[in-house]
DNA sequence: TCCTAGTCGTCAT
DNA sequence: CGACTAGGA
């Protein structure tokens, strides 16, 4: 789902780019995207419950590519389901079950090709699969973090706090959560399409003075999002038109004026619709995320005055700090069962390089870790002089050694952790 | 012109 | 998940 048609709507500000332009930066990854694509390589085995690590290798192709460009990847995984999405999850489960039965019948009939097509439709990314990927990443010294709830909100938090300079995903919802810079459609070579939060006003064709990010988010939500349906007959174009025509900033008043702004007579905006809209908006603004620095739960954005966490149960019910921490580390599954014993503490003693100059290259769980911060505006990825030099250095094979590279070479083997069958 | 709902592809040989 | 598209308002 996501926001239907958002990427085509933003095509004017989507720019082709390459991840090598972010050398020395941190990139946070929506792990689900890679896991889902990687699962296609071994759909039959996964459906049959056979052991396979094909999807792990698929994901590690991307990780290794990023490491080769001296980029620090942070893998972000999904945590608990939001209460509002329980129904969606149930429907997906039922759809997978249906396709599973369909595939079994087709297989009995000897229709192997059609059976595979049905099998592919019942692919499920299990927490065990996510754990295998996390273990493979941590073997390489790559940070992983499981969000308390949706990875989307967690990725946006890493973007907004300057922990990550780029977010890699296929999900257009990340734009609404307020990420600064996102790369979509990145291939295994590192080429993709970049979108920046600061350009969204151009996509709406709104003057800077009249543009707010709130307006952009309302536009998207009016066209329908995962948390709330659209008004009948309203898509992105009409929603954009409505947001251009009003200077109102109060959500309730904007919504009440929609039929007038768009000249649609038989359209009524019910009180229920408005309240649902505001709950959805709050889910984008205040969903609970995990702050790896303070090791505490926090809303994606600070609550406005007078609002308390208890008012926001739909944006993620509060959980105990230790539960959230163990979930974030990947030691606990969403049912609360212990599934691993990863302890980030021993690693913090082992860094002896020039990490004083580059504390942002440490593990996010290291007490000395510090976010790199936002990349100065306009500095990347289109800086011709730098681009040319990088190409030249690579062609000459004399790319200067980076702290990142030295760190990886001198890294001691991690203490043994429960790894299952992955070598 | 815009919205909607449905179908197809994602890997890799 | 998005891309693409036929069909309807």
Automatic annotation (TrEMBL):
GO molecular function: 5'-3' DNA exonuclease activity; 5'-flap endonuclease activity; DNA binding; metal ion binding
Domain named XPG N-terminal: residues: 1-99
A GO BP entry: DNA recombination
Cofactor(s) essential for the protein: Mg(2+)
Domain XPG-I: 138-209
Compositionally biased residues, Basic and acidic residues: 402-412
Main location: nucleus
Presence of keyword Nucleus: yes
EC numbers, comma separated: 3.1.-.-
Location(s) in or outside the cell: Nucleus
Keyword DNA repair annotated: yes
Chain spans, region Disordered: 371-423
Cofactor notes: Binds 2 magnesium ions per subunit. They probably participate in the reaction catalyzed by the enzyme. May bind an additional third magnesium ion after substrate binding.
Enzyme type, top EC level: hydrolase
SUPFAM superfamilies: 5' to 3' exonuclease, C-terminal subdomain, PIN domain-like
Pfam families: XPG_I, XPG_N
Annotated InterPro entries: 5-3_exonuclease_C_sf (IPR036279), EXO1_H3TH (IPR037315), PIN-like_dom_sf (IPR029060), PIN-like_EXO1 (IPR044752), XPG-I_dom (IPR006086), XPG/Rad2 (IPR006084), XPG_CS (IPR019974), XPG_DNA_repair_N (IPR006085)
Protein keywords: DNA damage, DNA excision, DNA repair, DNA-binding, Endonuclease, Excision nuclease, Exonuclease, Hydrolase, Magnesium, Metal-binding, Nuclease, Nucleus
UniProt signal peptide: none
GO CC terms in record: nucleus
PANTHER family reported in the protein's UniProt record: EXONUCLEASE 1, FLAP ENDONUCLEASE FAMILY MEMBER
Protein family according to the UniProt entry: Belongs to the XPG/RAD2 endonuclease family. EXO1 subfamily.
Function: 5'->3' double-stranded DNA exonuclease which may also possess a cryptic 3'->5' double-stranded DNA exonuclease activity. Functions in DNA mismatch repair.
Protein name (record): Exonuclease 1
